[in-house]
Design goal:
Order of helices and strands: EHHEHHEHHEH
Strand content: 15-25%
Shape: globular
Bound molecules: uridine-5'-diphosphate, magnesium ion
Number of domains: 1
Helix content: 25-40%
Number of helices: 7
Strand order of the largest sheet: 2-3-1-4
CATH topology: Alpha-Beta Plaits
Distance between the termini: 20 Å
Structural class: alpha+beta
CATH architecture: 2-Layer Sandwich
Largest sheet: 4 strands, antiparallel
C-alpha cells in the first residue's frame, strides 16, 4: 500500500481555544507522520484561494472571514490511506453529526467553526499541500 500525504489545518477556533496539543495528540495516536508544519495568519484573499471550490456557496463569505480571523496551524501528514483515515478521525463537517471521539465532536463549536480541515481526495491534497508548502519543506 502506497503512502499518501494530506493537508490538515487546526482552524482559528481551535487554536484560540488551545486545542492544538489535543488535536496533534489524536494525529499521533493514529500514527499519522508529520512531514511539514507552519503557523499562518491567512489573509481574506488567501482563505478565498484555499476554499475556491466553495466560491458562490452561501457559507463562503462567512467561512473565509472566519479562516482569516486568527492564527491557524497548517500541517502535512503522511501515512497509508491517510486521506481517508484523517477524515475519519475528524468526523462529520457538522459536529452534531460527528461520531463520538472524533476531533469535531470533541472540539468543534458549530458547522463553520469546526476545529479542523482535512483534504478530501488525492487531487485535493496535491492542490492544498502545494498551496502552503514548496516541496523542499516536506520532510
Ligand atoms: N462550512 C460551513 N457551512 C456549511 C458547510 C461547510 O460553514 O454548510 C464550512 C466548514 O468550516 C467546512 C468548510 O466550510 O469545514 C468546508 O466545507 P466542506 O463541505 O468541504 O467540509 P469539510 O470537507 O471541511 O468537512
Ligand atoms: Mg472539504
Amino acid at each position: 500500500m502506497a503512502l499518501e500525504r494530506t493537508l490538515t489545518i487546526v482552524k482559528p477556533d481551535a487554536v484560540a481555544a488551545c486545542h492544538i496539543g489535543d488535536i496533534i495528540k489524536i494525529f499521533e495516536a493514529n500514527h499519522f507522520t508529520l512531514v511539514a508544519a507552519r503557523l499562518v495568519r491567512l489573509t481574506k484573499k488567501e482563505a478565498e484561494g484555499f476554499y475556491a471550490v466553495h466560491r458562490g456557496k452561501g457559507f463562503f463569505e462567512s467561512l473565509t472571514t472566519f479562516m482569516s480571523s486568527g492564527p491557524a496551524l497548517v500541517m502535512v501528514l503522511e501515512g497509508e490511506r491517510v486521506i481517508a483515515r484523517l477524515r475519519q478521525a475528524m468526523g462529520a463537517t457538522n459536529p452534531d453529526q460527528a461520531d463520538p471521539g472524533t476531533i469535531r465532536k470533541l472540539y468543534a463549536q458549530n458547522i463553520e467553526r469546526n476545529a479542523v480541515h482535512g483534504s478530501d481526495s488525492p487531487e485535493t491534497a496535491a492542490f492544498e499541500i502545494g498551496y502552503f508548502f514548496p516541496g523542499v519543506e516536506l520532510i
